[in-house]
C-alpha cells in the first residue's frame, strides 16, 4: 500500500537562514535553510510526499521588517521567505495571523511571488483584497501504481484564528471577514469531496486546547478531528510540538503519544524552523 507523507513547517516567522538576527550570530538551531537537507531526505524516503507550510511565515525576525520597509519605500524585491520556499519547492501554504501585521497590500505583494498555492478557507476578502484561495485539490500520481490509473486527488483547506479581526483591526476592518474555524472546515471538507478529493488535509494555523468548543475559538485544532471528512490535521500557532509537548497531556480526545486528534492523525511542528514535521 503506497504511503502519502506530509512534510510540514509552521510558524517559521521569517527565520530564513540559520542565523539569530537579534544577536547577530550564526544559529544552526533555527531557519528554513537549515531544514532543507532534512526535507530532501524526507522526500527521498517516500516518493509521494507533500511539503506544506502552516502559516506565520512573513513576520517575526528583523528580515521581515526589512522586507516590509523596502515595500513601503516603493522598492520591489522578492519576499525572502517566499523566495526560499519557492527554492525548496513547497506544494502549498496557508496563512497565519501574523501574515496581516504589515497590511494587505504588502501581503498581496509578498504572496504574488509564490510558486505554490496559498489557501485560506475561513478568510473572505473583497476581490481587491484577495490574497488566498479557499481550498485546492492537488493531483498526484501514485508511485508504482497503474500508470493509467487516475492521480490521487489531495484536497487541502486552510484555517486561521478569527481573532485577526481584533489583532490587526487597523489593517483588516471593512476589508475581510473571518468565519468560525470548525464551521468553515466542515463546509469546505464536504465541498472538496464533492469536487473529487480522495482525501482532505486541514492546514490549521490554530492550536490544541482542552474544554468544550466555543464558536470563534482561537485554538480550535483539537476539535477538528470531530469534523466529518478530514483525514489529517496540521496544527500550529502555539509554537509547540504535537505529539509530545506536555501542554497536550490529558486533554480529552487528544492522544499525545500516537499523535491523534479524536482518532485523526495530527501534527504540530514547533516554530522558527527548529523542527520538521513528518506525518
Ligand atoms: Mn506564530
Ligand atoms: Mg500564530
Describe the protein's architecture and organization.
The chain has 279 residues and is an alpha/beta fold. The chain is built from seven helices and 17 strands. The longest helix has 14 residues, at 32-45. It is globular and about 50 Å long. Bound molecules: manganese (II) ion (MN) and magnesium ion. Manganese (II) ion is lined by residues 11, 13, 56, 96, 98, 237, 239.
Please give a handful of descriptors for the protein shown:
279 residues, alpha/beta, 8-stranded mixed β-sheet, 5-stranded mixed β-sheet, 7 helices, 22% strand, binds manganese (II) ion, binds magnesium ion
Cα Rg: 18 Å
The secondary structure category is: alpha/beta
Give helix % range.
Answer: 10-25%
Shape: globular
Number of strands: 17
- How far apart the termini lie comes to 16 Å
Q: Which sequence of SSEs, written as H and E, runs from N to C?
A: EEEHEHHEHEEEEHHEHEEEEEEE
Name the bound molecules: manganese (II) ion, magnesium ion
Residue share in β-strands: 15-25%
Task: Please describe the biggest sheet, giving its number of strands, its sense, and whether it closes into a barrel.
Answer: 8 strands, mixed
Q: What average pLDDT do the residues reach?
A: 96
Work out the helix count. 7
Poorly predicted segments:
none
